[in-house]
UniProtKB/TrEMBL annotation:
The UniProt record lists the keyword Coiled coil: no
Protein name listed in UniProt: GDSL esterase/lipase
Keywords noted in UniProt: Signal
Family note: Belongs to the 'GDSL' lipolytic enzyme family.
InterPro entries assigned: SGNH_hydro_sf (IPR036514)
Signal sequence segment: 1-20
UniProt gene name: gb29862
Length: 95
């Protein structure tokens, strides 16, 4: 349990550091162009970020209600009913 919490803290710190560096670099560059921002977060799942994402299996339980109804309003293929830690990290980092 402590190891998972340590991993979470490390992941959050890393995302915050990357977000802070992108905020610094998001200003106007020397040539009058804005620097690109990150568009996606890739998380190579563990129990804190892996949602299943098995919608390609049409007969799977996550392709039917109630999965996803609370936040997404439709079945999403996720093995959860809402957002996870990685979703909140992406939102707080403006990704």
């Amino acid at each position: 349990m402590a190891l998972q919490f340590s991993r979470l803290i490390l992941a959050v710190a890393l995302v915050r550091a990357v977000g802070a560096s992108s905020e610094v670099g998001a200003g106007v560059s020397g040539h009058g162009q804005t620097a690109p921002r990150y568009a996606r977060v890739f998380s190579f799942g563990d129990s804190l970020t892996d949602t299943g994402n098995a919608l390609h299996v049409a007969a799977g339980p996550s392709s039917r209600p109630p999965y996803g109804e609370t936040f997404f309003r439709r079945p999403t293929g996720r093995a959860s009913d809402g957002r996870l830690v990685i979703d909140f990290i992406g939102i707080s980092s403006a990704v």
